[in-house]
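Write out this protein's structure.
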Amino acid sequence: MNTPGMHVPHRHKGERFDDWRARMAVRGGPVTHGLARAGWAGFAALGALIGFVFSVVWSIVTDHVENPGNFLGVMIVFMPLGAALFGVLGAPVQFLARAWLCTPTSAEQDAFRKARRADAPYTEEGLRNGGRWAASYGRCAASLQSFHAIVGALPQGPGRNWLTDVGSTLDDELTEALRLARLGDELAPDGKAVAGTPRRIADLLSSAEESFAQTTDRAAAISLDLHRNPEFESVRAQLDMLAAQTPHLRASGL
C-alpha cells in the first residue's frame, strides 16, 4: 500500500509503470527485490558456489584432494565457468523481476478501471456518466445485484427455486429500466424531467428504484427465515408479498 507522501511512479499507457525501483515500495518482497536489483550477480555467485562444490567433489573422486595444485586448477576452471553460465541465466530472471514490479497490482487495476469509467462520457450501459438517468438505473441494478447474492446464498429447496424465478422477472424489469433510462437520456440529457414523457419516465424509474430496494429487503428477510426453517410453506405469505412488490415497468405501456 502507498504511504502518505510516497512518490507514485508515472504510469505508462496500458497501465504499466516506468520505475521498478519505486515500485518496490508497492509490491514484491526481499527475494523479488534482490533479483530485480542484481539477479545476474546473484545467479553468478550461485554458479561460482556450484563450481566450487563440483571442484571439491571432483578432487575427492579422483583422489586429487591432497594435491593443492590440481585442486586449485580445477577451481580456476569450474568456478568462473559456473559463474558465467548462471550469470547468463540470471539476466532474464532479473529482467522478469523488474517487469513484474512494473505491472500494477489487482487493487491498482481496479482503481484504473474505476478512473476510466469516471472519466468516460458514457457508462457501460450507454448512459451519460454522472447523469440523472444513469444514477437511477444504477440504483436499480445495485438492488438487483444484492437480490441475486441473497438468493445464491440460500440452501437448495423450493424457497430458493421460487426466489430464483422472481430474480428472472427482476432481470427483465431491469432491462426495461435500462430502456427507459436511455429514452430519458435522449429526451432530457440534462436530467430536467419537468413535464411530458421525461417526467413520466422519471416517475416510473423512481418507483422502480423503490420497488427493487423493497424486494431485496424482503428477500433478505425471507432468506433468514429459510435458513432457520427451510420449509416452503412457512414463508409462503412473505413470498406472495414479495411478488406484489416487484417492479412492473413492462406494464407501463411507455
